[in-house]
Amino acid sequence: MSDIDDSKFELFSNWQEYAIWKHGYEDPRSERLAYIFNALLDSNKTGDHLKPGIFEQDQKQFSKPIPEFRMSDVEKPYIFHTLQRAGKAAGDELLREYDELEGVTQIAGDKVLLQPYNLAAGRALKLCDQLENPGHLTLCEELESIRGCVDKAHEAYKSVMTKLAQESESASSKKKTTSRSKKMQRKLDPLAHVYELYNCQVEDVFFFQNVDEIKASYAYQLKPRFAFDVAFRELCTMKTKASLYGIAPTIRSFDEAKTIPSTYVRAVTRLSAPDA
SS3 for 1? Predict the structure, then answer.
């Protein structure tokens, strides 16, 4: 054996996993790679190093990705695939239960956050019934324009979230991303197009003066998580204005320097619970 850098024992660990998937735990090839990995793990202390040609030979034979959920030459299923299937089934069940709970709670929702849209819809519906009024369709048309803007963003949001969920499921079977690719992923916000659609200017709205509140309220009615992703500030502002003491203006540097004791947070939570 000869001096090798730290990355090579990591490679042998990955190659052993492939050998286990391909040939099984008890196969001599899997055991051999395990022994090499253990030897290389302490090679900086022991001075052991690989014989010439061994690394290239094993790299050619075992440097391959493990296909997701595909059976190998071994009759027994690969243990990590079994765990992955079990984890995915458990995760799907939890998501299903969460969606059911969200559906139950969404019916009632937060009265403060639902109020702007409910008031706007009530006024529009009331005016639509007044056929003798020349502008009886105006409010309905304006509200429909506001809803259309939010609906487009919501459809895009659902597509993005579905795609992210699929990518998350397949991430375990892919090779580790480099630091450069991770930086690029952080720069690209997958919801950027959703924000753009949601924040589009709603044209020809004259009678509704609180368009942003109505949009946020309608988004909350569609799906609370979607609303907080695209209109977090507006929703927080609505809750603050409806609170007992209202809203207090402050500059960001002062606000970021504040420290709120946990005891105060618990006290306020207990007091505001009935109004939530």
Answer: coil
